[in-house]
């Protein structure tokens, strides 16, 4: 079923951010979820999804895991400008979350720091 356009919030954007583990995807979601959208003209929702749900291919070698390692953020706004402003703020917050994960969690880089 195709996505229906909400007449009150006609502008939308979905951002899928792959992370190395389900734990990190969940932690990012929890960290970002606490900041509510300031404008009533914008709505945002978070979820985690698996890599398998993003591939429509019949080739099973492309599907690496059913673990929910992708942070999905869905935005709806009344205007393109409001959508842009909200997404810019989200990207700033995401940058901070990923920076903290990179500094404090070994899973983010996928390799251990030199001793």
UniProtKB/TrEMBL annotation:
Pfam families: Pcc1
An example Gene Ontology biological process: tRNA threonylcarbamoyladenosine metabolic process
Cellular component per GO, a single term: EKC/KEOPS complex
Organism superkingdom: Eukaryota
Family: Belongs to the CTAG/PCC1 family.
Name of the protein in question: Transcription factor Pcc1
Organism annotation: Hyaloscypha variabilis (strain UAMH 11265 / GT02V1 / F)
């Amino acid at each position: 079923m195709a996505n229906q356009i909400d007449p009150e919030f006609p502008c939308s954007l979905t951002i899928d951010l792959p992370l190395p583990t389900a734990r990190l995807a969940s932690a990012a979601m929890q960290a970002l979820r606490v900041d509510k959208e300031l404008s009533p003209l914008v709505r945002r929702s978070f979820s985690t999804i698996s890599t398998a749900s993003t591939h429509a291919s019949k080739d099973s070698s492309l599907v690496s895991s059913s673990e929910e390692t992708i942070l999905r953020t869905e935005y709806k706004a009344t205007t393109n400008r409001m959508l842009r402003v909200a997404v810019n703020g989200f990207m700033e917050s995401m940058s901070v979350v990923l920076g903290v994960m990179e500094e404090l969690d070994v899973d983010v880089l996928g390799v251990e720091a030199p001793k």
